[in-house]
Amino acid sequence: MVLLKIVETTLLVSLISAIVGTIYRLYFHPLRRIPGPKLAALTWWYEFYFDVIKPGQYVFHIKKLHEEYGIIIANSTELGPIIRITPDEIHVNDFGVLDTIYAPPSSRRDKYARNLKQLRVPGSVGSTVSFDVHKKRREALVPFFSKRNLCDVISSHAVDKSPLNLSDVLFAFSNERSMAENFLFSHEVNNLADEKKAASLRRNTYQLSRGVHRNKHMPWIPDLLEKLPKSMTKPIMPPGLVDMFALLAVSFLQRRIFRDGPTGKESLYDSVLDNTSLPESEKSLPRLHNEGALLVLAGTESLAKTLSIVFYHLISNSAILAKLRKELKSLPDNVTWTQLEQFPYLSAVIEEGNRLAFGVTARTARISYEPLTYTPSQYVINPTMFSKSYAIPQGTPVSTTTLSAHTAASVFPDPFTFEPERWLGENGRVLRKFQMAFGKGGRKCLGIELARDEVVEYG
C-alpha cells in the first residue's frame, strides 16, 4: 500500500512538473519569441530524433527549418534568419553576425557544455567550456602549432594503372603526419605501408564518430563502458583506436618524444609538461591522454577530408587541374611557404576544398557573457522582410553551422559546385571572412596554420 502511494505521488509530481515545464518553455522562457517548431522548444527529444534515430541529420533539418520559418516571395523562399532549435539554444543563418557569435579573443565566449558531451575527451582544449580555462590551455599549446610515403603509394598505382582508394590512403597519411611527424611519437606509425591497414583505420574512426550523437543524449552508456574492465571493453572497440590510445599513454610516460629525434622538435606533451604557468592538475595523465586523442583525431579527419575533396574535384575537372598545373610549373626550386602563399590559384583550390569539407559539421555554439540583440543584417537576402529584432539573454547557446554558412547561395552562388575562381581577386578577399572550416573567433581551431601548410605541401 505504501509502495503504491509512493508510485502515485511520483507520477503526479512528474505530471505536474511536465505541465509546468511546458507552460514555462512556451510562454515564459526568454527565447519564447524566437521562431521555431514548438516541439523543439518543449523538449530535447526533438533533437534526439534527428541526431540519433535519423543519425546525424539535425544539421540538415536545421537548414530546412530556416526555409520553413522564412517567407515565400515570387516563388522563392527567403530563409528565416533565426530559429530556436532546442529549449535553450538558437541557430542563426546570417553572415552579418558571425563576428558577434564567434567573437575575437577580446570578447569572452564559453562553449556549450551539453554539446561537448559527445566528444568524450573532458579536459582537452577543444572540450573546454570556460573561456578563461581554455585560454590557459591554448596558450600552452600555441607555440607548438606555429608555422614521402604518400607519393610512393600513389606512384606505385600510377605505374601499374591499378585503382587506388584515395580516401583510405589520405586518411592514413594525415593520421601518420599528426601522430608521428607533427606532435606525438618518437617513432613512425607507418600506416601508409599497408593499404588494408589504412582502410581499416578509416573505418574504425568512422565507426567511432557514429556514436558522438548518442554520447550527447545518452552519456550514461559511455560512462558505464568506461567503468568496466578493459578486458571487457577492448573487444568492442575499433582495433586501430585501441592501438592509438595505448601509444598515447606510452608517449606521455616517455616524455621525450622528438626531443632526441632527428627533427629536434619537442612534442605536444613536452609543451604542456614544461609549461610553468600551468598547475599540476593540468598535467595529469587523464587530461593529456584526452588532449592527445582529440588532437590526433581532429588533425587526421580534417586534413584527410579536405585532401580527398580536393583530389576528387581535380580528377573530375580537367580544366581546373590544367589551371593548377600551369601555375605550379612556375614554382621556383626550393620554394618557401611565403612564396607558395603568393600563388593565387593554388590558394583558391585549397580554400574551395576547405569550404566543401565543412570542417566540424556539428553545431559549435558559443555563449556570451553579456546580453545580445539580433537584427537581420545586409547578408539576409531581404532584411526588410525580417526587420524584427530579438533579444538574446546572456548565457544562451548560439550557433551557425558550417553547412549553413558554406552553402548560403547569397554569398556562395551555386554553392555545391567546386569553383576555385570564386576565391580570386577582391571577391576572394571578402569571402575569406566567411570561411568557417577551422572555426572562427577566439576559439577557432588551434592547428589552423599547421593544417593549411600540410594541405599546401601535400595537396
UniProtKB/TrEMBL annotation:
Its cofactor is heme. InterPro entries: Cyt_P450, Cyt_P450_CS, Cyt_P450_E_grp-IV, Cyt_P450_sf, Cytochrome_P450_monoxygenase. It comes from the Eukaryota. This is Cytochrome P450. Keywords: Heme, Iron, Membrane, Metal-binding, Monooxygenase, Oxidoreductase, Transmembrane, Transmembrane helix, Virulence. PROSITE patterns: CYTOCHROME_P450 (PS00086). GO terms for molecular function: heme binding; iron ion binding; monooxygenase activity; oxidoreductase activity, acting on paired donors, with incorporation or reduction of molecular oxygen. Belongs to the cytochrome P450 family. The chain crosses the membrane at residues 6-28. Heme binds at C445.
